[in-house]
Amino acid sequence: MSDEENEARKKPGTTARLSLGALSGLPAGGTAPAAAELVAAAVRPQAGPVVAVGGAAIDRTPAAVKDWAIRDFGTDDELVLQLGILAVLALFALTLGVLAVRHRRTGAAGVLVVGAVGAEAATSRPDSTSLTDALPSVLGSLAGAALLYCLVGRLPAAHRGGRAGAGEGWDRCRFVLAATAAAAASAGEGALGRALNGAGGQEAVASRKNTDLPPPASRAPAVPRGAQVGVAGVSPFITPNADFYRVDTALVVPRVDATAWRLRIQGDGVTREKTLTFDDSLRRGLTERDITRTCVSNEVGGPYVGNARWTGVRLADLPEECGVRPPSRGGPADQLVARSVDGMTMGSPVEDVMDGRDAMLAVGMNGEPLPFDHGFPVRMLVPGLYGYVSACKRIEDIELTTFDAYDAYWVERDWAREAAIRTQSRIDTPKPFARPKTGAVMVAGVARAQHRGVDKVEVRVDDGPRQEATLAAEDTRGTWRQWSYAWQATRGGHTLTGELQTEKRTRTVPDGAGGWHSVVVTVE
Length: 524
What we know:
By secondary structure, the chain is α+β, with helices and mostly antiparallel strands. Helices cover 34% and strands 20% of the residues.
């Protein structure tokens, strides 16, 4: 074999070279977000491209799709979204790697275009206050583009015959080493960035640790004996903080330093604007109440409902001190818009906030400062209203306005402006498709009808007559109520239905699900 033939055999064919080009795109594509996350630690975690693009994607997702994600993935919906974004970035990286083999500069420029998308998403977020939010995406894409340009430059032209030039031999080992080193470096960058971003919230962590909630001036009554039915499988009457449902649009939960937190109250009908600090809140005299919360995305029989003992400042007192009057007393504002530090907005009827119910700015949950996932340092609660119109976490601004003048975040996405919680009951046990034995089987669960209270729950087996369940002791009209029914189970398949609310099944959009909850069991 001639020297020319030996040299040519060392050079890759076109297909092999394109494959290696695609592989070059992966470490370059990994370097861009990893370097961006490192830069975001110096700017702010929410400015990272994955978080910013994810937030923009959430904002533009149709309500029905969001509802499906929450229903099927629960609190993991944000993780699924982030993994989806990374998967799309990986496909782009492979494509740009192939493109760079034929057009080296164009492939590298493609990485910069992806970075520009991230920069635009970061600077257009509601909580963005500076163009510096573009820096993570811009600098990360520059690092990724430079790496792709260098890696592809190590590949010689595909063999087409003739003598190969000196130094153009295909050094597979050198390429693999360079790509591996780049991948390891990007992994290290990403790990360091995540560590620094986590450390960036230490002031907030310290402020929560140092928060000592004063005894409430108005304590909640003790939970009555008999409020828990004592049937295995039924939810505890008070939901532990770790088990309480959580639905967020923020991919990174903001950690707010309580010592720097401020709340401003302003808008229509406000004659005296007010700014409240966290210490101001604790000194006002706190109220403690048991309140059941539920998410509008909760399907009939779903898990997104919980009951906790909340501690906070009476919300109605604050607008009253600012001179605000509800519409029933001639006030010009009918909507109270709450704004979070992450830009989320929620609109509650002023009349509901000021009608005497236990609406509050909560600072505590089940005897401890609010967990970060549940809104530390301060969140809003309005009993009887779904969370999407009343449960603003990390609230920093209250504006009095009208429903005609402003649509809050979820209203812009086809949810109802006003959303009172629907009456619902849920069968907690037996579980769907359970196989109990014949004889006495306890059917039990929870029911809620905030402000109205639950006075009766009925159970029906198959198409038989309605049977009244035994109600547990009532805590307040603002909490759920447990119930049980002793069923003499006979062999075969059966459908158990909890009844009294509206029979017709409705979906969650636009103002909450409705209908009877049923489970199917097989008695052996």
